[in-house]
């Protein structure tokens, strides 16, 4: 059972890391899109 518990915890940590990465990427995309808008106008 300890193994399963460890795996679940690892998955939870990975998921949290992925959510952070996703958030960071979304922010970068927003910045790039507004820069693009400024360049095109």
A few lines on this structure:
By secondary structure, this protein is mainly alpha-helical. It is 95% helix and 0% strand.
Order of secondary-structure elements: H
Strand percentage: under 5%
Helix content: over 70%
Q: How far apart are the first and last residues' alpha carbons, in Å? A: 60 Å
| Structural class by sheet pairing and helices | mainly alpha
- Unreliable residue stretches: none
Number of domains: 1
Helix count, per DSSP? 1
Number of strands: 0
Q: Give the CA-based shape.
A: rod-shaped
For the CA atoms, what is the radius of gyration? 18 Å
Specify the biggest β-sheet: none
Average pLDDT taken over every residue: 96
Can you walk me through this structure?
By secondary structure, this protein is mainly α. It has one domain. The chain contains one helix and no strands. The model has no long low-confidence stretch (mean pLDDT 96).
Secondary structure: elements and pairs:
Blueprint: H1 2-40
Features:
41 residues, mainly alpha, 1 helix
């Amino acid at each position: 059972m300890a193994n399963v518990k460890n795996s679940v915890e690892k998955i939870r940590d990975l998921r949290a890391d992925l959510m952070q990465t996703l958030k960071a990427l979304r922010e970068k995309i927003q910045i790039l899109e507004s820069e693009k808008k400024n360049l095109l106008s």
